[in-house]
User: Fold these one by one.
Assistant:
Number 1:
Amino acid sequence: MKDMNCIRKEADLDQIKRCQEQISEAEEAVSALTDKLSLVSNSVRLKILYVLQTEERLCVCDLSDILNMTIPAVSQHLRKLKDRDFVKAEKEGQTIFYSLRNDHRELLAPFFNLIIHQPEAI
Amino acid sequence: MKDMNCIRKEADLDQIKRCQEQISEAEEAVSALTDKLSLVSNSVRLKILYVLQTEERLCVCDLSDILNMTIPAVSQHLRKLKDRDFVKAEKEGQTIFYSLRNDHRELLAPFFNLIIHQPEAI
DNA sequence: AGCTTATTTAAGCAATTGCTTAAATAATTT
DNA sequence: AAATTATTTAAGCAATTGCTTAAATAAGCT
């Protein structure tokens, strides 16, 4: 409680302390969550996840045609999604197929649900 | 279908077209969603929303003490949250109290639920 | 009116992001 | 083996982000 900015008389010190503890307990969960959300909050990556949900698997050049983007641009997005376990890669000949992993399906489900069933509610 | 990158013989043109249409229909919803998620994917802002969920209302300097950040830093985050209707501001004397708006409670609920009840699942 | 308190706004800056182009890998076909 | 195809990696760069500090607003107190 060293550096206090709130010095007004109505300031509720107990409230501030309680909030600090609440955040302190949630610190790790918040970091883990924002780490994942920062991936999903990119529209190209959300689109990739969205089509992978219905298509089972797609290769890099499929996605490049679908999104109308260069292959390296798509590849770099896929690497981020793979690094954080959103997708997995399977090599078949010289083609690499990407598909959704189950790891974060629970996190993604509400987003897909919003997009499909109540887009006006966003 | 002008610039095709996928020229391998197994390429499924129908699949690519279907995905393009799927994305085309979802375009607006995806933009609106990522616009909001990019706000929530910042850990400072998620913490602000998280404590506001339980505390009803807090002023800028409360939050500055809670988060151990400078007042302008907090103020700038609050402005973004306010611009996108996540929070509302009520002036009371020279103090400005911020509280959660109902607009995006549905979007936020799954996040708070994860943080509180199954942090290990993130 | 002048001083303090609460907050916002603005300028500056380092770090991050997401693209582009070019080069490097690797598997396939000729 | 050489050429083609699929993908990744790396360097470069413009745009964005989130902080810092300082200045501007605005409301209360003496």
Number 2:
Amino acid sequence: MADGVFAALSHPTRRAVLRELAGRDWMLAGDLAEALDVAGPTLSGHLRILREADLVVSERRGTTIRYMANASVVESAFAAFLQSLGVGRADPENE
Amino acid sequence: MADGVFAALSHPTRRAVLRELAGRDWMLAGDLAEALDVAGPTLSGHLRILREADLVVSERRGTTIRYMANASVVESAFAAFLQSLGVGRADPENE
DNA sequence: TCCGTATTTCGTGAAACATCAAAATAGCAT
DNA sequence: ATGCTATTTTGATGTTTCACGAAATACGGA
């Protein structure tokens, strides 16, 4: 379950996608490709991997497709892994 | 700086190494290979990647080499990435 | 329907990665 | 030095990943 998350996070461009998406609510695939300076097909592949890992959510808006990050998935994958390392917080109920 | 950490964490066997190392202080390379059921050379390669990412520390003890996990590196890499996502705690002085 | 824009899928070549056996290295003991 | 054990390096091989152009698909508008 966390397998896909860590695989997705292993590529610098995919981490950059998540950073680019952070803060703003949505961003168009084309704008992402331009901001990160990668070709459309290249970004599309990265977005597919991120989507399959549930790290981003996509939504078609007319002829465009917009993406939003799913930071909570990153958080819980990190928390689970740290916990398996014995580093996790004992009480998961804060916030 | 976190680049190597995320690349290292992308492989299931390398995450398993860190989990196996968690808790115990040190573990011999050979015992790790047996516990994880991978051939010696295979594990040695994974250990090299973990070492270069500073995720494990090695120390020669006579004819054996023992390894210890460096969980704090995982923690800080995760914290830094979450912060770059705007998810990090704004004030690190509450608990 | 036909056109234009946005995005994804397909195909391909290059580069990186993973595995393991065999050979090399390191240390300790005799 | 010789031998023994533990680990790493090397080399060969198969698999996966990455990047991008070209083609396909999806949508909305004229």
Number 3:
Amino acid sequence: MKPTKAPAPESTLVDADTHMESFRQTRHNRRTELIEDYVELIADLIADRGEARQVDIAQRLGVAQPTVAKMLKRLAAEGLIQQRPYRGVFLTEAGAGLAEKSRERHQVVESFLCALGISPEIARVDAEGIEHHVSLETLNAFRDFLRKRE
Amino acid sequence: MKPTKAPAPESTLVDADTHMESFRQTRHNRRTELIEDYVELIADLIADRGEARQVDIAQRLGVAQPTVAKMLKRLAAEGLIQQRPYRGVFLTEAGAGLAEKSRERHQVVESFLCALGISPEIARVDAEGIEHHVSLETLNAFRDFLRKRE
DNA sequence: AGCAAATTATAGCCATTGCTATAATAACTC
DNA sequence: GAGTTATTATAGCAATGGCTATAATTTGCT
């Protein structure tokens, strides 16, 4: 059909392997973003109230409590939290580290959006979605922008 | 435990309803982003090769062909594409509209990241993940930034 | 202490999005 | 035009992340 080679790719179609790699990365990020959201939220709740209860997590995430219970088991299995039956959860050292990393990244993204003139409410929502797809290089670019802004 | 009220919320904990709304929005975006990726890719393939075959879609998305076949059924059910057995797919008017919208948004996000000084490869990958979580307001802020840059 | 209310645990369901294996059909080559 | 190769369709499985309903346990009140 095509004569040996595509006749000048006039569209936005890039190299197939590159394309694939981007999507693979995105799928991978999707897998980890829920975990990061949980850990970050647990850290915030502990900082604010002294404990992280399932009801509070569920309310803030907008999901049902059994959904939270199931996910907490997964977090525990991955060594990010520690839990005792019928009690609130605690972060392990690994969990606290991940939480801190996530929290800082979230903060940078949200501040960056605000610095662009986006309204705080929208910046909040968008940052929640964007933060998990921001590479270190992009995060640093955001930081640079914020620094130069001041 | 806590004395009537939290002792000055020193953390990043925002209003519970706001928090919930952000996560709900993010979950909603997740549901639509795959659809947008497919439609956008199908449009690109048609523009570049004259047709969109499952093997090509699968290769560029980095998934197996049956995965693509299943998703195409969903797209057809939603009226975004038209397909005949053992043949490539076509975009309906609705599908073409969504594809164009997605493509343009993708382009803005990727260009914006590049304008921030991020390397093209990283910008590609990050844009792929970020584009689906960018509200209209944020997209416009990106456009403004690009315009003022020139 | 004991009872009611709140919270957590568990069971079992559903939808989504991946996969492999294999059958059916189309495309290509000779 | 017949056979091989490439592509698409279909069946069936697994993991993930939701849900409701209900049991078990803790908390709070009197």
